[in-house]
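Q: I have two molecules that I believe assemble together. Could you output structure tokens for the complex as a whole instead of separate predictions?
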Amino acid sequence: DAKTTQPPSMDCAEGRAANLPCNHSTISGNEYVYWYRQIHSQGPQYIIHGLKNNETNEMASLIITEDRKSSTLILPHATLRDTAVYYCIVRGPLGANNLFFGTGTRLTVIP
Amino acid sequence: DAGVIQSPRHEVTEMGQEVTLRCKPISGHNSLFWYRQTMMRGLELLIYFNNNVPIDDSGMPEDRFSAKMPNASFSTLKIQPSEPRDSAVYFCASSFSRAAGNEQFFGPGTRLTVL
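A: Yes, here they are, computed for all two components at once.
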């Protein structure tokens, strides 16, 4: 699975959009980009994933660049409950079930 | 759905004792994963099962660790004998594997302290 690079920490004002970047320059054609987050003392929580197209769900939007070498997770209106460590993970389809979590980005939402 | 259920939520034991962690995956999921999280090493995959069969146990640290999945609704992770360096939070996760991606759903974890 391709390696990812994320900033170690970010701050965001409550109510504003949080944009979390991820670099995955060695991603291959059949690898998906996944985002998980881990709120303190809880298990990781799936947020969203995508292959080539931008994706949106009730939690967030995922913007993947055309060359697929980087992506951005967008939380449109951050709340205090969004304070967590966010992990960007690249992995293949069936047959590569393990997730390598790395160190992630610690997002702090400030009141 | 109750989600992934893990027990116990907290376990404190003494070095040398046997520890058994339990997991009930989400009904209908066909893959189950055991992870360990520490401050030093982050979140690491220990082993995962597909259709109750162990597929990859390369993350199991040593022979003191063993995992079983006797049926689709239950799995155990056993440490015998336990050591202080095994202290960590152990997470169980389950998923339904499909070609379009298979998000994993994590349980609340078991916080293990070995004295």
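A: One point stands out. Chain A touches chain B at residues 32, 34, 38, 42-46, 49, 93-94, 97-103 (CB under 8 Å).
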